[in-house]
Amino acid sequence: MSKIVFFNAEEEDIIFFDKEFRKNYDLKFYKRPLCEFSAITEEIKDANIISCFTTSELNEKILSNFQNLEVIALRCVGFNNIDIDYCKKNNIKVLNSKGYGNRTVAEFTFGLIFDVSRYISDSYIDLVDEKNKKKNYTGTEIIGKTIGIIGLGAIGSEVAKIAHNLGMKVLGYDIIENDELKKFFEVKYVGLDRLLSESDYISIHSPLTKENYHLIDENKFALMKENAIIINTARGEIIDTKAMYKALSFGTIKGAGLDVLECEEVTNDANFKFDMDYLDKEEIKQILLNHEITKLDNVVVTPHIAYDTKEAKERIRKITADNIKSYFEGNIKNNVY
């Protein structure tokens, strides 16, 4: 009987996958992520399938413990937390949950846009703290403003559609141009530098690759308008955090809405507080910088929750179950390489 091990499993995940697979498969569930601090016991080393979320870190050191591993069934879209080269070499399929959260993340993107533009979180915090700084809450409307979208895949396309319907002008940067977006939603494709220099809002929706690591660096921030607001719901490493901190501190740009940060898997890992020896110098510097980012008055930071809606999680479970079933039926779906 094939064995499936689920990490990052919430109660709803356990109920759903138990019902889907218990009859024909040996199942194990863990609420914690799979990482270097995990105890990989004998009872799971023979797993045929691992299913996890982005907070699991599956490098060669971890994956080499699973000698029978055939599939990594991701309950997310991004796969930068997986050693793809190791998987290719060992014929391990990596299946993601493509398309589960297009609308969910797009809606959250505008939540950040409205929050930063209208000081919603700041005004609430001041109210609770019994401060009165209403003169500082003068915001801006988004109608008529220009939004530049970096990455017009499934999520970026949804952002473009919402922006158009809200009366915004839409610039797009992507290697592939979408004719539907151009025709029906008036998206204008331009080069990255032009997008950065002309946009009032810049929203990132690209996957993290070697090519776009620190795509937005100090030189790119220098191109932006002083009133520009940058939004990131993709991956933290696409932005050079040090460069962003300078731009936000010195008024090069107006503000930021961030659902992701660089090195967040370490920042959010409680283990580092008990054993800092496993961190290198750069990781420690990044943790400190992330902490400073959250202190800035012109920044809203959320803990990677853009995906997190009831509807999206239901879609994740269904897509993941379908991916696993299709694999055993000989019809592989959503393999990322």
Can you characterise this structure?
This protein is of the alpha/beta class. It folds into two domains: 3-100 and 310-328, Rossmann fold, CATH 3.40.50.720; 102-301, NAD(P)-binding Rossmann-like Domain (Rossmann fold, 3-Layer(aba) Sandwich). The chain has helices at 11-21, 60-63, 84-89, 102-118, 120-128, 154-165, 179-184, 192-198, 218-223, 241-249, 264-267, 281-293, 310-328; strands spanning 3-6, 26-29, 49-52, 71-74, 93-95, 146-150, 169-173, 187-189, 201-204, 229-232, 255-258, 299-301. Strands 8-7-6-9-10-11-12 form a seven-stranded parallel beta sheet, with helices on both faces. The protein has a five-stranded parallel beta sheet with strand order 2-1-3-4-5.
Compile the SSE list and pairings.
Elements: E1 3-6, H1 11-21, E2 26-29, E3 49-52, H2 60-63, E4 71-74, H3 84-89, E5 93-95, H4 102-118, H5 120-128, E6 146-150, H6 154-165, E7 169-173, H7 179-184, E8 187-189, H8 192-198, E9 201-204, H9 218-223, E10 229-232, H10 241-249, E11 255-258, H11 264-267, H12 281-293, E12 299-301, H13 310-328
Parallel strand pairs: 1-2, 1-3, 3-4, 4-5, 6-7, 6-9, 7-8, 9-10, 10-11, 11-12
In quaternary terms, these chains amount to single chain
- Kindly state the number of beta strands: 12
And the CATH topology of the largest domain?
Rossmann fold
Q: What is the rounded distance between the termini?
A: 27 Å
- Uncertain stretches of 5 or more adjacent residues: none
Shape call: globular
